[in-house]
Specification:
The protein contains two helices and five strands. The chain has helices at 31-35, 59-69, and strands at 5-12, 16-21, 24-29, 45-49, 52-57.
Length: 77
């Protein structure tokens, strides 16, 4: 079972980001990406698990993950 979610960064905080998943918003920790030296900015797409961003991905990857999640519809995350 996959528990990862994809969202787009809408605002940044101190070690956190507010991420949009459709109309929903969630605050996620950037601790893992920070430790890995991965820069994160507003507009970036993140893969999240249990409130922690675990990967930064491209918009194309995010759209592909949404297509798999939503079936063949290919809606954006």
């Amino acid at each position: 079972m996959c528990l990862e979610q994809v969202g787009q960064v809408v605002t940044m905080g101190d070690g956190t980001a507010v991420v949009a998943r459709g109309k929903a918003r969630a605050v996620v920790s950037l601790v893992i990406l920070t430790l890995e030296g991965v820069p994160v900015a507003c507009g970036d797409w993140l893969v999240m698990h249990s409130g922690i961003a675990v990967r930064k991905i491209s918009a194309e990857e995010a759209a592909g993950m949404a297509a798999v999640r939503d079936g063949a519809g290919g809606r954006r995350p």
